[in-house]
Amino acid sequence: MSKDYVMDDLVKDFEQGTLSPNKFHHTEHVKIAWWYLSNYSLLEALTHFVTGLKSFAKSLGKENLYHETVTWAYILLINDRLNKCEEKLSWDEFAKNNEDLLDRKNNPLENYYQTDSLKSDLARRTFLWPDKQIKQ
Length: 136
Known about the structure:
This protein is mainly alpha-helical. The protein has one domain (7-125). Helices cover 58% and strands 0% of the residues. The protein is built from 8 helices and no strands. Helix 2 (26-39) packs across helix 4 (68-83). The relative contact order is 0.12.
């Protein structure tokens, strides 16, 4: 995504359904979730993001791509990371400090969920609590 594409424009286009699918990859998902969590309470951010994501998927005729557990889990992880910061971070600072959240190939949710659980129809339809023992 080009540097001149302002965060507020990204969120506005996402909410209005005018965001090109070619400009909405994993990083943009995380970036928009970060923006909502930086500007709203957890519940409000979750509501805005879920509503926008479902609407976006529907506008593309791809409602089946929406995944409730993945969406909620990422929102909760991003929120957790933000709350552990002593100061408010810019997107660039947050992204640099949380590269694992942007790594689509090494999904951080695999640390919390069994593979079969995340692939299940139930996880796609409703949020499932993590079911994997976390190694300390």
